[in-house]
Design brief:
The structure is a homodimer. Chain A has about 350 residues and is α/β, with parallel strands linked by helices. The first copy, chain A, contains 14 helices and eleven strands.
Chain lengths: ~350, ~350
């Protein structure tokens, strides 16, 4: 496969450009990726100087402006024409890069993607998806907050796009698609879920029916669709709960000397468990439905998370994610479910 | 305070009547509770024979029928006039018991409560609530599944009833009430949340605004309100995730001998952590808004969970939960928020 350049928003994230540059160096060195670091040339150059980078496929694309984490996304993207996130998207638009990874202001990344790349033909609403570590693998949940209110045809497209991502970027064959509900039976669910169920059943997707909250960590489905309000609650609850459970355990383990000794002996196991549960292993949240590969990292991303985000972006590009979604939507449009969804 | 009889649905739950009777014996012995065991007299008597019960305030109220876990709730309750769950509710209705605890078919418990006890005057829709262990205490979430679709005035009543429970049964002063949303700002949320926010702000409740999924385990609020679809997803995700995290940790801890030794040394700490995170410590899900104290236990409840459920039922009765909700609703009806809510 021909190498593709991945555009990295070098200024995006709480610890940019230090961790973004370190992550890019690691991705180039360890994975052989070709990366365009987009942002303030002097700052990036200063960070790059800390590493041995001769022979690595890294180049800088200068952009003088930065959209800060606290800025109003759409407004900032519109006004800051020379921002790193806009310049990164433009590289994809011009065909000079295959995809974008950014750990910056997620609203701004979405706004820049829509503004510069636009939607894939036929997509009603792009979805932001999260990939969770679950038993025996990963599960993608979409939408996790881009669309607070949804219609049944939105959820159907989220399912199609999510399945495309799991198949093309993560190599899952015939991803199992579940509809998040308050019960497994077909009759369960709120009005949105009940209207979406028959649509999903008519698609060519591997639809396994309703799934419940408890099924998510068990890995019952590879793709779980829901409205962005519910998905956002799910995402943040999962983050908060994992932190709470581990901190409760830690508090108890440090309460008596014997437990502390035990915990010290078991430290490698704790580290392995933490790594298996770590979002940073997976590499970011894909923005599905825009006309280009765009992945959004956590603002708190460290260099390891940036490296993995760049890797996932490359995998989605190599897997022809956008073309797969485009073809899937075309095929869907010719079916009864597609016709119903207008 | 005058002792009150608590009615226990002795036939409700996966392991009834063995664990229900054992739980009742423990509650009577350890807490001095007075309990009416409702169900098949011969079966209950056989279980009671396993314990020393002289001096304990336990009596049997015979009911010949049982609503099974898999039965259609409303239909079964209507047809089985001599079912343990109906007979238990009737004890409350006649003033012979202060409240009911059941670990049986939760739909049937709700149906029986509505059918026999009815709603408190002014309650539009009763809510099923769950009490979660969180950092530094507990948080009640309502609704967790009784009402899949909700209106703003439903959520307002859930808030009032949930706060009454946390105050009267768990002794939390001026419970902080949060509205579950996809962001903290007042402008966040789906249509339901955005319409509920101003209503809650007009009440006398200690409303702290929107809370996110991650805030829940952190104990930011004592009461979190949401529609029953979202609440059900939250409840089941929390259960599934806790199980997944602990099983992942366990798998890693048993992968090498040193970790295994460490885990063995730290076993008391693990037990303490598990106990702090255990739903069975808390004692069941209150059904709020029916004209009587009704708590529903997990079908998988063990004797310890039954004992704690009986204890919480007693605390809610002693705390005058129903009267508090009734007075709260009356006071609310005289406010602008109450008037708006019709």
């Amino acid at each position: 496969m021909e190498a593709t350049v991945i555009a990295l928003d070098a200024m995006g994230g709480d610890h940019a450009p230090a961790v973004t540059v370190e992550g890019a160096v690691r991705a180039a060195r360890e994975l052989g990726l070709e990366i365009a670091l987009v942002g303030r040339e002097d700052e990036i150059r200063r960070e790059l100087a800390k590493y041995k980078i001769s022979g690595l496929k890294l180049r800088i694309v200068h952009a003088s402006e930065v959209v800060e984490m606290a800025e109003h996304p759409a407004q900032a993207v519109r006004q800051k024409k020379d921002s790193s996130i806009r310049r990164a998207m433009e590289l994809v638009k011009r065909g000079e890069a295959g995809g974008v990874f950014s750990a910056g202001n997620s609203g701004a990344v979405m706004a820049a993607a829509l503004f510069v790349l636009g939607r894939i033909e036929g997509v009603h609403r792009p979805a932001l998806a999260a990939v969770f570590p679950v038993r025996n693998g990963h599960t993608l949940v979409a939408d996790i907050g881009a669309n607070t209110e949804c219609e049944p045809h939105n959820l159907m497209q989220f399912a199609l796009m999510g399945a495309a991502y799991m198949e093309r970027a993560l190599g899952v064959r015939r991803p199992r698609v579940g509809l998040l509900s308050n019960g497994e039976e077909e009759t369960k669910g709120n009005a949105l879920v009940q209207a979406t169920y028959p649509l999903l059943r008519q698609t060519a997707l591997n639809f396994i029916g309703n799934v419940e909250g408890k099924d998510l960590p068990m890995g019952i489905a590879d793709v779980v669709v829901c409205d962005g309000f519910t998905g956002n609650v799910v995402l943040k609850l999962a983050e908060g709960l994992a932190e709470f459970l581990l901190s409760t355990l830690k508090a108890e383990l440090t309460r008596d000397p014997l437990s502390l000794l035990g915990a010290a002996l078991a430290l490698p196991a704790f580290r392995r468990a933490r790594r298996r549960l770590d979002y940073a292993e997976i590499g970011g949240a894909p923005l599905l439905g825009v006309d280009g590969v765009v992945l959004i990292g956590h603002g708190r991303s460290n260099a390891w998370a940036i490296r993995n985000g760049l890797r996932m972006t490359q995998l989605a590009v190599d897997g022809r994610l956008v073309a797969t979604i485009r073809e899937g939507l075309r095929a869907l449009a010719g079916t009864p479910a597609g016709a119903q969804a207008g």
